[in-house]
Amino acid sequence: MLPAGAVRGGWPLPPCRTGGPAPVLTPGISCLQGPGFGLIQFALMSSLRTHSALRFPHRHLLGIKDLSATDIDQILDLADSYVELNRQVDKKQNLLRGRTQINLFFEASTRTQSSFELAGKRLGADVLNMAVSNSALKKGETLIDTAMTLNALRPDLLVVRHPDSGAVELLSQKVDCAVINAGDGSNEHPTQALLDALTIRRRRGSLQGLLVAICGDILHSRVARSNIYLLNRMGARVRVVAPPTLLPAHIDRLGVEVFHDMRAGLQDVDIVMMLRLQQERMHGAFVPSLREYYHFHGLDYEKLSRAKPDALIMHPGPMNRGVEIDSEVADDIDRSVIREQVEMGVAVRLAILDLLSRNLPANSSAAGAK
Ligand code: NCD
Question: Is pLDDT above 50 for 2?
Fold first, then answer.
């Protein structure tokens, strides 16, 4: 059942964004093994403590659209420190001790759900995974009923993925805890864009001035939308490359350059972001055939040769090998940072849980905190 205020399919268009100031790069601690380990661990803890003095000016994380360049820098700086924590043997922190985190996934997920679960557990929260796959809703329960049921469980943090655009925001208005959008329809997937930004920033030092091509099924992609907001906000230039059938109307209003030809779109780019062909969201034929799609829009070495020689290849996963990306290209250790994106996903989710938890009321349940 489509909740009131939610939109299925299509892209509701906000006003176009312009670039923001360059991000401030926090140097990470590169090595956590060997004789200096104690010192380095001390440096890591003080780095996390330094960041912990800052207040994040949002109660929920619903989308990149609501974040300023300063907010994004704050998240990425803290996530940088968490990358180091994740590489230690002992990854456990006490920050969320006594807190309850519920992961409510109305759609299947591997990476996102497991990294939110790991992040919550690493910070000491009690984590409950609820894979509802619409079952309660199919039995007639509305999203509002679900929200009320969840509220009675008194969570502090609620991580939600839902097939309808706007559903997570609606839920956030009905519950007392902090809500994190783990992907809503074709609207936003803010933590994916943040982990992509962290991956790029650690490789390139800054997002400012980079030329990024987002390629493939833009129409159905919340990842594309969140990345467009974030990259524009941080001063990168964004191209979208897709056949006309896989582009939302008026996409150019989001401040991107539009290309239909893959070779032209990839010319001289610093970053190639590939997207999955989301066949489960397609009603009707959007591409003539998967073979033809791969021929014209699949990333292979020949098309990649148009990009800068050191251009990074990214994909949010799951990948359709041989449909939007050639298998060898995806696994190319010199060019592809796809596995690194997964690692950065845990760090970014740790940072988000950390930042939002600072705004929770001191007593264990957030209920009544509105
Ligand atoms: C993306 C999603 O769910 O939007 N995947 C993810 O979060 N790792 C992209 C996709 O499903 O293609």
Answer: no
